[in-house]
Structure formats: C-alpha cells, structure tokens
Design goal:
This protein has about 325 residues and is an all-alpha fold. It contains 13 helices and two strands, in the order ααααααααααββααα. The protein has helices at about 25-35, 50-70, 70-75, 85-110, 115-120, 140-155, 165-195, 200-215, 230-235, 240-260, 285-295, 300-310, 315-335; strands spanning about 270, 275-280. Strands 1-2 form a two-stranded antiparallel sheet. It binds Phenylacetyl coenzyme A.
C-alpha cells in the first residue's frame, strides 16, 4: 500500500529530503487549488513544509496512541474471564498494534523515519492520546474502553478517511472498520455484564463513571483553545472540529447508555430542544493538560513499559537485519 514511499535512511542525520522545500508561489498556488478542489495530495506531490510537518505531527501522535493504547487492555489478557473473551481481546489488542504500523508507514511517506518517531515517543517528547494514561482497574474497564474509547476514536477517525493526504486517508478506512468491531465487542461485553449480578452491574457503572469525562477530553481542547485546528481544517486534514466531534459523540452515546442501563456521570447532561443536541457539563481541562504533559496516573508506567518492550525486541530486529544481509550476499554470489 505504501510502496510509493520515499527511500528514507534510518540513520539519524541521514534523512533524505523527500521534496525540494522551495515554496515558489506557483507550486503553492497549485497545491492550494488541489486542496480547494478537495483533491488528494500524494507523497510524490509537492507540498508546503508546514503541511508536511503538521501531518507528521498528527500521524505520528496517532501511531503512538495506537501502540501505547495496547497496554491498558493488554493488562487484562491473562485475566480475561473466559477463553472466548481472551481470544477476542488478543485479536483486538493485535489490531491496535497493526493500526500503529499502518500509521508509522503513512508518516514515513512524508520523509520521516520510524526510528525518529520512536525516539520521540521513547524520550517522552512526542505526545500520544491522554486516554491511555489511566488505569484499567476491573474487567468492565475492558468493555468500557471498547464502547467509549473506540467509540470516540471512530467518531474522530471516520472524517479522517477524507483527509487530504492520500496515505493517511487510505490507512484510516481499514482502521475504522476494525475500530467498529472493537466498539461492538466492548458494548456486547457490557450488555452481558448488565444482565448478570448486582456486583457485575456495579462494576460497569463504576467503569463508566471513571472513563466518561476522560473520553470527552480525548477529542482535544475546545475549538477556541485549539492552536492547530484552523490550519488543519483549511488544509483538509481535519474535517470536523474538536467540539463538533465531541458533541456528535455525546449525542450518539446517550441512547446507547440508556439501552445498556447505565447513568452517564454528568448531572448537566440533558437534551436541548432548541440546539437539537445534548447540553453537558464542564470538562476538567487542567487534569487533561496535566496528563498530556506527563503527569497522569500511568504516564511513567506506560512509557517505561513501551521502552522495555522496544529494548527487549532488539534481538528480533538484529536477527531480521542479519538474515536480510545473508540473503542479499547469497543473491550477489549467485548472480556473479
Ligand atoms: N491527548 O490544536 P489541537 C485510539 C494535543 S487512537 C494528547 O486541537 P490537533 C485507538 C495536540 O496534539 C486515539 N494530546 O491539536 C484505540 C496538540 O499538541 P501539539 C488517538 C492531545 O492535532 C482505541 C495540542 O493538544 N487519535 O484511541 C489530545 O489539531 C482503544 C493542541 O490540540 C488520534 O490521534 C489528546 N487527547 O487535534 C487504541 C486521531 N488532544 O501537537 C487502543 C488523529 C489534543 O501541538 C484502544 N488526531 N492534544 O504539541 C487528531 O485527530 C488530532 O490530532 C486531535 C488533536 C483531535 C487529537
């Protein structure tokens, strides 16, 4: 899918410039016209450096989120309540790993190497979604992550299938299909628990209480405080604003909560006939920024687990490189 990707060296400092960065008015006008006509930009096309940088920032953060997002649910694979639930959870967590890989590949087409992106994550410089810095305390958390976290992710990612950058938009199509399965498996798991004992019902309600507000914050700061939104929308990278996506998510989730039989923990949540939307209470943005800035309950644990996994996997990467080298040498010998 990404074979149109540029050849980029993984050696730091040896990154190949994908295109000339000359921002001539003529190239700029052609780029703007393509964006205005709702056309796609492909890796081989000229693009302004700021557009490239914005995409690398967003796509790499997205990839990191998928990879770190494997950890909270991964914690429950060994404790799933049945073989069926364990198999489903393994498949889901594996899917998230796959999403990370498509996204790193999409970002690589912009001339940034995977090593550079991973360095950013492992050194704590790169961002990833705030939501994955909270603990998964009981089995209902796994269902709630599927229902609400994947539900929020889909709401945000469906418009990204129409993103102006081709490789990102195409990657999102498959990601969204898989996220839909994740959302349904989470909701189905919760429906089963809600038909169970009083203790099981209380577990679901407790998990919903802990995750609801964090899921609303996942959409990012309010539009008025979102420095990247205006330009991202102008370039057709973002299609729907943070606040509009948040509102769509709330409106879609309220009836689902009713069917499930849980209460969403917001006394201000009510239908507003005039607006045709639900009103909702205040999100704690200071908690959100604390978490984004590395001080949430699990930031340190998530990062150290990820760094350890990367270091533990070094021998696999080394073995793969040694194997590729041997094969190459054999081919050279055979050709001689
Ligand atoms: N967490 O100006 P904006 C998933 C940062 S995937 C941390 O509004 P923008 C799958 C933002 O980066 C979830 N940081 O920024 C799954 C910016 O910082 P910067 C991830 C956040 O880019 C499910 C600053 O705040 N999804 O869940 C967050 O226009 C279950 C100002 O914000 C994506 O990445 C946050 N929540 O809009 C996996 C989707 N929000 O870079 C496992 C693609 C904002 O200037 C289990 N990304 N920030 O230093 C996007 O759509 C956008 O990047 C937004 C942010 C909407 C996230």
């Amino acid at each position: 899918m990404y074979t149109q990707s540029f050849s980029v060296s993984d050696e730091p400092g040896k990154q190949q410039k994908a295109v000339l960065s000359t921002e001539s008015p003529e190239l700029m006008a052609r780029f703007d016209a393509r964006i205005d006509a709702d056309g796609r930009i492909e890796p081989q096309d000229w693009m302004p450096e700021a557009y490239r940088k914005t995409l690398v920032r967003q796509i790499s953060q997205h990839a990191h989120s998928e990879i770190v997002g494997m950890l909270p649910e991964g914690n429950w694979i060994s404790r799933a309540p049945s073989l069926k639930r364990k198999a489903i959870l393994i498949a889901k967590v594996q899917d998230e790993g796959g999403h990370g890989l498509y996204l790193y590949s999409a970002a690589e087409t912009l001339g940034t190497s995977r090593d550079q992106m991973l360095d950013g994550l492992h050194s704590g410089k790169a961002k990833y979604s705030s939501i994955f810095n909270y603990p998964t305390l009981n089995w209902a958390d796994v269902g709630v992550i599927g229902w609400l976290v994947d539900g929020a992710a889909i709401m945000n990612q469906v418009p990204l299938c129409r993103c102006s950058y081709g490789p990102y938009a195409r990657a999102m199509v498959r990601v969204c299909k898989e996220e839909s399965f994740h959302q349904r498996q989470g909701y189905e798991g919760l429906l089963v628990m809600m038909q169970g004992t009083e203790e099981q019902k209380a577990m679901v309600q407790d998990a919903v209480n802990r995750w609801w507000w964090k899921c609303l914050a996942m959409f990012g700061p309010p539009d008025a405080d979102s420095p990247n939104s205006a330009q991202g929308m102008r370039w057709g990278i973002k299609r729907v604003s943070n606040d509009d996506l948040r509102q769509k998510f709330i409106d879609a989730t309220v009836p689902q909560a009713k069917v499930l039989g849980v209460t969403l923990p917001d006394p201000d949540l009510k239908w507003n006939e005039e607006r045709g939307h639900h009103d909702y209470g205040q999100i704690d943005w200071s908690e959100f920024w604390d978490t984004v800035n590395g001080n949430g309950p699990c930031n340190k644990e998530r990062l150290s687990t990820r760094v350890k996994a990367h270091n533990d996997g070094a021998w696999v990467r080394e073995a793969a490189i040694a194997h590729a080298r041997k094969q190459q040498q054999r081919q050279i010998k055979e050709a001689a």
